[in-house]
Design goal:
31% helix; Thrombin, subunit H; 12 strands; 6-stranded antiparallel β-barrel; 6-stranded antiparallel barrel; 3 helices
Length: 269
């Protein structure tokens, strides 16, 4: 009995391990490893949750939050632009207050040529109405439907606007360049002008009232033939127009007599 007890004391651990191994092998065989897989997943799931990042439900919730935040920012921006425009409109005399309109159409192929507004004949807009935005002159209403208007932008290659240099009254014709800049061709061969001078519509303009802000002289080429030219940085945000104001077309002004210019000014839009 004593010998058996001593033998058991020496072999008990080995027998236990053998029994555990054989039992585990039998269980794995019977369950085809399912039990072991469950145990493994139960141990590693907390670690996987820590390492894998947000769940699909959390990602969906975050996406919805980002969508709402984007919409809020967009609405705030629209509200600010509209408030600025309405404040600008309220400063105008009641008899000549413009129609606030939003840009609702713009083709990528004609980005610098034209825009479509959400107001038309039903709002009193007609062909030849003047379109302005923060910064100054934007363009001219070219065609109208009951509920929309198409505007020819001053950045269009076909656009021509009679302008003047505010500092010296030097005059010329501003032509679109399909960009945020335009080309100013002077009537004088050597105009009194310098970089930084402000440009506005002149009394030579046949379709726009005088004194509308247009832009600033960015560069000069006084040796250009047959007339000196300048690059003009346009003030209105032609690249990203959103809200504009549409004004009735002005009465045809009397042309002012040119003084000390070398050639007779041509008629301008």
């Amino acid at each position: 009995m004593v010998i058996l007890r001593r033998w058991w004391d020496r072999k008990a651990l080995q027998i236990g391990l053998i029994t555990l191994v054989v039992g585990s092998a039998w269980i794995l065989r019977q369950t085809q490893g399912t039990l072991l897989l469950e145990v493994y997943q139960g141990i590693t799931r907390p670690l996987q949750m820590l390492q894998a990042g947000p769940t699909p439900e959390e990602r969906l919730r975050d996406a919805r939050i980002l969508e709402l935040q984007t919409r809020i920012v967009d609405l705030q921006s629209q509200n600010k632009n509209l408030q600025n425009l309405l404040g600008y409109v309220e400063k105008e005399p009641i008899s000549s207050r413009p129609v606030p309109s939003r840009v609702v159409g713009r083709s990528a192929d004609h980005w610098w040529q034209q825009i479509t507004l959400d107001r038309g004949a039903n709002s009193g807009i007609q062909e030849g109405f003047v379109v302005k935005a923060e910064g100054g002159l934007v363009g001219l209403v070219e065609s109208v439907t009951p509920n929309t208007s198409r505007v020819l932008l001053i950045s269009d290659l076909k656009s021509q606007v009679g302008v003047t240099i505010s500092r010296t009254s030097a005059k010329g014709v501003l032509r679109g360049d399909s960009s945020a800049e335009a080309v100013l061709e002077f009537y004088e061969k050597v105009p009194n002008v310098k970089i930084g001078d402000l440009v506005s519509t002149s009394t030579y303009s046949q379709k726009f009232p005088s004194g509308l802000a247009v832009g600033r002289i960015k560069s000069l080429d006084l040796k250009k033939l047959p007339a000196s030219i300048a690059k003009v940085e346009l003030f209105p945000p032609i690249r990203s127009l959103d809200w504009v104001a549409v004004y009735p077309k002005p009465a045809t002004p009397e042309l002012e007599q040119p003084q000390s210019i070398t050639q007779e000014p041509q008629k301008s839009n």
